[in-house]
Write a structure and sequence with these properties.
216 residues, TIM Barrel, eight-stranded parallel barrel, 44% helix
Length: 216
């Protein structure tokens, strides 16, 4: 399996320095990974470093809680694209979801999607915070919103992806939305398992070395 094109590489710590972003982007380029996922303040810098490569630049909006106003998320997303972002991540408003205010959950997502047009939108479910029925409902809302990707976790909660939740999401959305396994994926063997059961991409904050990847 050529795993390179399936790996998203994240660096979202609040203490991340410019030097760390530079080294991080060089690592992603050298390993020919699919994308980097960074905070929006560094999108312009990443664009300078990766603009002539095949590595996509992803950034986050309303992150990591997802509880910010829709208007704030829309502004962040549009500004990020102006700065050079190729993809946008947003966390679903879990408070609305747990309140069964599904109309507001859908509007929050669709307003961002409408604002960014053809730019891919990834909605983070935070599966560790949801029960089975809530995960299924969240997936159904995502189907109605015409987004491109569902992502399991932001990496800022107590746990992330599980094989069970990936199977559940896949069963619900079938092939209509692509799936990104994220959160706690620290080995190549685990990444491979997620891809084999239906994830399209794997998000990790751990550097995956070329020599290791070649073994897959």
């Amino acid at each position: 399996m050529n795993i390179f094109k399936h790996i998203d590489y994240s660096l979202l710590k609040s203490t991340t320095t410019e030097r760390e972003i530079i080294d991080f982007c060089h690592d992603a380029k050298d390993n020919q990974l699919n994308s980097v996922c960074i905070n929006s303040s560094y999108v312009a810098l990443a664009k300078q470093l990766l603009g002539n490569t095949n590595v996509k630049i992803c950034t986050v909006v309303g992150f990591p809680l997802g509880a910010m106003s829709t208007e704030a998320k829309v502004y962040e997303a549009k500004k990020a694209i102006e700065d050079g972002a190729d993809e946008i991540d947003m966390v679903m408003n879990l408070g609305y979801l747990k309140s069964k205010n599904y109309v507001s959950v859908l509007k929050d997502i669709t307003d961002v999607k409408m604002a960014i047009g053809k730019t891919p939108l990834k909605v983070v479910l935070e599966v560790s915070e949801l029960n089975k029925n809530e995960i299924i409902k969240a997936c159904e809302i995502c189907l109605d919103s015409n987004i491109e990707y569902i992502k399991t976790s932001s990496g800022f909660t107590k746990s992330g992806a599980t094989l069970t939740c990936i199977k559940m999401i896949r069963k619900t959305v079938k092939n209509r939305i692509k799936i990104i396994a994220s959160g706690g994926i620290n080995s190549l063997e685990t990444a491979k398992k997620y891809l084999e059961i239906g994830a399209h991409r794997v998000d990790t904050s751990s550097l995956l070395k070329v020599d290791d990847l070649a073994q897959l």
